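Retro notes
What went well: the complex prediction finally ran end to end.
Inputs used:
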Amino acid sequence: MTVSVEPTDPTTTERALRPHAEDAFADELTALAAQDDRPRPARWKLSPWAVATYLLGGTLPDGTVITPKYVGPRRIVEVAVTTLATDRALLLLGVPGTAKTWVSEHLAAAVSGDSTLLVQGTAGTPEEAIRYGWNYAQLLAHGPSRDALVPSPVMRAMAEGMTARVEELTRIPADVQDTLITILSEKTLPIPELGQEVQAVRGFNLIATANDRDRGVNDLSSALRRRFNTVVLPLPESADAEVDIVARRVDQLGRSLDLPAVPDGIAEIRRVVTVFRELRDGITADGRTKLKSPSGTLSTAEAISVVTNGLALAAHFGDGVLRAGDVAAGILGAVVRDPAADRVIWQEYLETVVRERDGWKDFYRACREVSA
Amino acid sequence: MTDSAWARTGPLLLGVRHHGPGSARAVRAALDAARPKAVLIEGPPEADALIPLAADPEMRPPVALLAHAVDEPGRSAFWPLADFSPEWVAVRWALEHDVPARFIDLPATHTLAWESVEATAAAPGTDGDEAGAEGTADGADGTGEADGDRRAADAEPDAERQLRVDPLAALAEAAGYDDPERWWEDVVEHRSGSAERDVFAPFAAVEEAMGALRETYGGGGRDRDPVREAHMRLRLRAAQREFGDAVAVVCGAWHVPALRARSTVAADRELLKGLPKVKTDMTWVPWTNRRLARASGYGAGIDSPGWYGHLFRAPDRPVERWLTKVAMLLREEDRIVSSAHVIEAVRLAETLAVMRGRPLPGLGETTDAVRAVLCEGSDVPLALVHDRLVVGDVLGEVPESAPAVPLQRDLAREQRRLRLKPEALERELELDLRKDIDAGRSRLLHRLRLLGVGWGEPVQSRGSTGTFRETWRLCWEPELSVRVAEAGVWGTTVDGAATARAEADAVRVTALADVTALAEHCLLAGLPEALPVVMRVLADRAALDTDVGHLAQALPALVRSLRYGDVRSTDTGALAEVAAGLAERVFVGLPPACAALDADAAEEMRGHVDAVHTAVGLLDETGRGGTATGTGAGTATGKGTVAGSGTGTGTGTENGSGSGDRGLRRRWRAVLRTLSGRDTVPGVLRGRAVRILLDEGELGAEEAARLMGLVLSPGTPPADAAAWIEGFVGGSGGGGMLLVHDERLLGLVDAWLTGVPVEAFTDVLPLLRRTFSAYEPGVRRTLGELVRRGPGERPLGAGQTAAVPGFGAETDTGRADAVLPVLRLLLGLDGTDEKNPDNGLVGAGT
């Protein structure tokens, strides 16, 4: 079988907008591998302990500092790594913006040293993307043979004992999803046209990510679901962490969209994040009052877009300062997805929580204005 | 062991971790191997007489030894025992082998007395005993339910613990563990008996470690340990004199080195001299797994009694058996869990344990595995697993022959104090709540009702309807004694038990209205301590309830409670806050909930609207204290609330003190306006809303007539118009009088009715009949006469026949005015606005 992997040209890596994890953190991976004396599963570049350290960060005995790639509960990383070590497939679930793809890329980079065996799931993902396709010129000229076969990333990972990744698994049509069942349970990929098969080499595994708000889109069949261990990546634990994420991302976006600079709107960002968190969690920040949660996700990603919109409004039409009025409409749009139920929830929130809160008068008024 | 072996080793000291299943197994193995002639156990010696009850077939752990001061049942201490507690295992072993068992800790008579001496100091047992993990029993003891003690003792342990050296934490830290519990589990609990060849080895190792610790840290800041240990040593010596050296001691690991230490009898006696004493009584009480769990307050210091019980009972393969149990539970709840799932979960748990460097998967690993494999990453089924298996729903049982619970004694004392004798003969009791003794009686009866002891049933008071009166029907049935005994689970005093019960009920009940009823009950029973929990639950339920109907139902009871609270001078601040929040939610949710209703639902909703209206009026008043009146007319239209408006002593001026509540009323009117103007809202509700606004003086008569004309114009379907009329003037609430007094409205109805097409007439007839048949006969007759004469024609002159024979044709306004000053005085309207005297009168007249 001819599997041609282009040798990575160093100059391309440097010019790349975003280098792969294994290239960006090559130093750390090398240092970890050098000092890793624990047993490694077959074809793993690192031991499970070292993989966990790579993701969670730490200091090696020789003083090398490993930066944390994932900031969150240790338990999650441990379960994820252990799952891969028990040759079960790993399903990372979470709402948008919870670093699913990020974690899956780094896991693949640390375990197999290659995070590029990737299938992007879309509504149009064909079976060929998961199994194999044909090079039709070859096929017509020479008839069916392994040379005419175009392997998918999954097939290559099986042949080489690497980690394959499937992004947005639940967006893939159900019949295409189910081609994974044989791969995951029998660890083999039959090629009936040639009367052959590709058997997975030890070390092969698969990491899938899915958005759990999209569960209904193409829900996994229970047969497939059974092949996965599921790890749910949570939203940021503290308000401060989330404010930090939003502020940083808004800053980046603002620069790339060439928005005029707006003075520090951190107070307003904090307010947006507070509203999102409270409605999402169904409880006020002080933990004293329960709330109903609206039907929208209210993810961090949405908070970012609300603030970015607000900034644009403030810069182009306002007085250049991010104010309550600039974000109110955006928040309303993010919260009220179902016009009947969500509106009641939003008004209840305004009347019972926002109205009473010190220093939120302007926000309350702005929201009342847009809600009316 | 042979006698000579005993002589060589001395008494067998088995240091355990309280409630540790591994320790329990090890204790059993060690006792089986050593066969001592007597077993000494850490615990209050007063309970020695109760030990034989442990063998009673009706005794089922978890149970607790309860010690309480005879004269003050609120001062009490618990020693909970589960079947996996080493102490329980030791007791059972002794009973099975016919060997005497004795408790050797300091007598409860001293520990209970200590508390009264130093009410603010640490509760004796909170010193946490030894192996740190415990906090048992004694943990609870300080927290006796006597009012004040509880808070003091609850707040304490945290601060206290930090001051003291936690011996386990030090050991665990040395071993590289961040969590001392896990360290103990790994090192001691997870060694199953079979793997261990020498059954005594673990005890020797633990003793050595504790010895080293005590050398480093000394007493560890545990002031009372020397005294307790002195007592244990004395008891041990006494046992040695009686049984020779063949004696086994089961106690917290921390105490072992102290028991081993050489000290003179005289020195020990010296330590025990002059300890305070209090007369105490002991008994067994049933316990539950939930109470063993730390979260529930009376904690024995263990998070996972269910898991420990499993570890103790499972003969082998604890992880596989546990995960199978979890799978069975999930299947019962209709989740699809196959054996393949269980296999994968076991593999994951074991690999995780290796990854985390533990000898066997613990609860943490199995929980992670259950979440990732069996629950598909979701925490919802996991919560079920935690509640049903990890904690577990086990309820202990105690044989009937166990001594009486202190609750009985407390009840007897209360009965004496309030001069309220239990009599089998049924009788009625009138209480005037303004008197202290009657208020006390009422509280007692309400508390007993909460506890399921139905001694008194409240009955409708005859004559007076004042809120300061209560009538009870009393009857003491013999089986009520059994009820009292059962209620002993909840606490040692009537007050404490009722509080605990109310808190537990609040968490258990699901319907919002039930929680409000409970809040009302708490106020009646004078249980301010339970209120915060009930309010918390109430606020949560209200926030999550999406059915406006439920909210509207809950509101009146809550507002009623507020007013009772006033009469009984309880602090109702929290209640008022919750009630206001509830009202806000109703306001927001009502308009959407009123759209697209069928006739029955609309009728039900109308009831809710009325109830909320009355409640808002009351809330307004209660909130504003004495500044009521002025707009009292609105309240007075509500059913039977005349007394309510009378309580406002009113200066009649708004003095802004209750601006929030004023706002409440204003917003309520805004909601009603919305309702009245929305076409999707059923006619009956729109009519009702307009009527309320009219009564409130919010709508002028002109405006009401306009709205009515709008509805009764030909464009509206007749059925809808009829419903509107029903809402507007229907019911016995004086709608008829409105028509009698405002002939314009009557004229509108009349004109509309004559214009209804024939085919539609039969449709609206039943509704109209219902509306008008509810009026009093007098009103009906007057209306009939007005209609016969032709409405709107009266002003034509004195030539017409007088409406009522014997009266002048026209009103003599001069004479009528003479009554106004008196009316004003009665209604407390002095100095108020005179804009709407009409409305005031209409309101009051209804």
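What we learned: The interface with chain B takes residues 48-49, 52, 75, 78-79, 81-83, 85-86, 88, 91, 93, 212, 222, 225-226, 229-232, 282, 289-292, 340-341, 343-344, 347-348, 351-352 of chain A (CB under 8 Å).
What to try next: split runs per interface for comparison.
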